[in-house]
Amino acid sequence: MKAVAFVTGASSGIGAVTALHLNEAGYLVFAAARRADRMAPLEAAGVRVLSLDLTDPHSIDAAVQTVVADGGRLDLLVNNAGYGSYGAVEDVPIADARAQFEVNVFGLARLTQLVMPQMRAQRSGTIVNISSMGGKLVAPLGGWYHASKFAVEALSDALRMEASRFGIRVVVVEPGSVRSEWGEVAAQHLRSTARTGPYRDIAERVAGNLAASSEPAARTASDPNVIARKVVKIARAARPRTRYRVGFGAAPMVFLRWLLPDRAFDSLVQRAFGIHRLTTPRPESR
Questions:
Q1: Chain centroid to CA 152: how far?
Q2: Which residues are catalytic?
Q3: CA 34 to CA 52: how far, in whole Å?
Q4: What pLDDT is recorded for position 70?
Q5: Which of 149, 166, 170, 277 allows an S-S link to 135, with CB 3.0 to 4.6 Å?
Q6: What pLDDT is attached to residue 192?
Q7: What pLDDT was estimated at residue 208?
Q8: pLDDT tens-digit readout, 44-66
C-alpha cells in the first residue's frame, strides 16, 4: 500500500509543487484547494484533487473523509493553505482580520483535529505546518498576517508534545521569501486598504516589495521547489527536526531577530522600508 499524503493550498505555489514532488516520490497524493479548477495539471500528473474551503466546516469534513476512505490511511498532512491580509493594524477591518485567522489558523487546526484519530490509530504520521519566517519576526503593515503565523507556531509546539506519544511527528517549515502568487495577492489587499489615510506613504513601498517577490525572475525570493524538496525530505526522515528555515532570507533574518534588542530590530526594519518618525511642528514664536 502506498503512503498517503494530503496537501492543502495546492492550486499554485508551494502547495502545487509539493504535491508534484510527493507524487514523484511514490506517495498517493490528495491535493486540495478552494479553486479546484486550477489543479488540472496536478490531476494530469496522477494527483487526486479535492475542493476544500477552510472557512467551511462541512468542506473540511468531506475532504478528510474522502482522503481516509480512498487512501485507506494517512501518513502525511501538509498544512500549506493560507494567505496574507496586509494593512496597518489600525486600518484593517476586524472582519478581515478574523477571516485571516479563519483560514491560516482555525482551518488548519480543524483539519488537524480531523486527521489525528486516523494517525493515532496507525500509531504513525507526520504533520507539516507551513508557517513562515513571519512566524518569528514582524514587518510593518503585516501585523494580522504575522499574528496568524505566530499562532501556528504555538499550536504546532503544543501539538508536537501532545502527539509524540502516539508516534505522530509535528514539524514546522518557516519559508523565507518565495516566488508565488502570495506576494501579489498580499500587495493588492494592502493597496486596497491603504489608498487613503496616515499609512499610505509606506503602504506603496511595502506593496511593491510584496509584489516583487511574485516576479518569476525575483532575485530576493526562492523557487517554491526548494520548499517542496524539503517537505519530501521531512516526510522520509526517521527523526526530522522540529523546525526548518528554508528559502531566501529565512535563517539570517530569524537569527537577527533573536540577536538584536527589540528597538534595534525595529529600527533596522523601519530603515529598510523607509519609515521615519513624523515630527510635530513647533509653534511659531511671536
A1: 9
A2: 11, 131, 145, 149
A3: 5
A4: 97
A5: 149
A6: 78
A7: 81
A8: 999 999 999 999 999 999 999 99
Is 56 within 8 Å of 63 (Cβ atoms)?
A: no
Give the separation between CA 129 and CA 159, rounded to whole angstroms. 11
Is-contact 30 6, C-beta < 8 A? yes
- Going by C-alpha positions, the residue among 239, 207, 246, 3 that lies closest to residue 87 is 207
Q: Which long-range contacts (CB under 8 A, 24 or more apart) does 191-196 make?
A: 193/86, 193/87, 193/88, 193/91, 193/92, 193/96, 194/87, 194/88, 194/91, 194/141
Please give the pLDDT value at position 193. 76
229 contacts 235 by C-beta, under 8 angstroms: no
Local structure of residue 220 (DSSP, 8 states): T
E strand or H helix at 234: helix 224-236
**Nearest by Cα to 15 from 59, 52, 55:** 52
Crossing angle between the packed helical segments 143-163 and 94-101, to the nearest 10 degrees: 30
Residues 264-285: pLDDT tens digits? 999 999 988 888 776 666 566 5
pTM: 0.91
What does DSSP say about strands 125-130 and 76-79: parallel, antiparallel, or unpaired? parallel
